[in-house]
Amino acid sequence: MRSVLIIGAGRSASSLIRYLLSKSESENLHLIVADLSLALAEKKTQNHPNATPIALNIFDADERKSAIEKASIVISMLPAHLHIEIAKDCLLFKKNLVTASYISDAMQALNEDVKNNNLIFMNEIGLDPGIDHMSAMKVIDEIRAKGGKMLLFESFCGGLVAPESDNNLWNYKFTWAPRNVVLAGQGGAAKFIQEGAYKYIPYGTLFRRTEFLEVEDYGKFEAYSNRDSLKYRSIYGLDDILTLYRGTIRRVGFSKAWNMFVQLGMTDDSYIMEDSENMSYRQFVNSFLPYHPTDSVEIKTRLILKIDQDDIMWDKLLELDLFNPNKKVNLPNATPAQILEKILSDSWSLEPNDKDMIVMYHKFGFELNGEKKQIDSKMVCIGEDQTYTAMAKTVGLPVAMATLLILNGKITTPGVQLPIKKEVYLPILKELEEYGVVFNEQTMPYFGYNPDLF
Questions:
Q1: What is the reported pTM?
Q2: Is residue 116 part of a domain?
Q3: Which of 308, 317, 176 is nearest to 258 (CA)?
């Protein structure tokens, strides 16, 4: 049997493992599911006859190399910074590799060696990055094939809570890594291009510059800008495009409320707060407020944020129990961002019966035969439960499908790559539809911008 080594059995691996096991008989596969926690690997494989769970410490070079050498193909579902040693071993033993992570500089540096060994190192084949690339390139290539010229490309994606599980004032719960949510937008100004002009949004105002989106049957959303929208301009072949913008989707009102944390300084991850372990939630809030001999923490918070007692923003803060003097942070040597993450996790963790939701929205503006046109492409995916979430499905299924296509010789282009070629995106997007990941495309009046006002 062909041996598929899956390294990492965390949340994103659930749908990936289930899919490959469902194909294991017809495709002659045996899965080796490796994780630091043997119990987790066992839980994900569920005693399936075509799967072997193993404990694997990837920092043990001999252990790691032994597992990779025996595999027909390797899937790494580890955090992005841990892929590189896996990749080097795959190069050493001439094994193809699949990951869902962004291509790092270290991974890209292997490209020539990977090509010379006729290997495929497929990256960015999850959700975002992944399904966003594939669904975008499909439409862009179709427009070009008709002789159209791209004018505008906007792309938005968000991991949200499903409508039936949306029961807090923020209309949000953590469906993925909470730390990434808390640190979103940091590390430099967001940059994009609008009507040929470069635009920059510094972190301090990022969450007050949003765009509204309407999705049929799901209502209104908003999106704030990703840090670098220009990253894929050349990769997508959009060097001459007038407008290029990528953003993160939230429910309307989230960004304005989140901006309160930014303005207070609670999202800062650059310094440690003294005696954080013994700090109460109330003391944490008060740390960012000026001293006053008589005003309460609540009054000082409202004054500095310029919100009234009957403002929904105030209700959102109260809902998080931020001012509780009895709740302790219990995190030693913590940064403000780490403490905020802890506080939010109390309120925003998914309940056992909660479901998550993925929303993706692309806008394509183009000129064809002298006429400006627009196509809007939208996808909504609802999770099944806490194990087979929408996030696990949209990250894991494309990884699994790409793995099979590589094994079966349907993807042949060698090198370190992302899924922007037709041999990759056409079969995967088609098969994803069978699993409820469907893009609905609509022709719209061209959105554009007023060039006199940009």
A1: 0.92
A2: yes
A3: 317
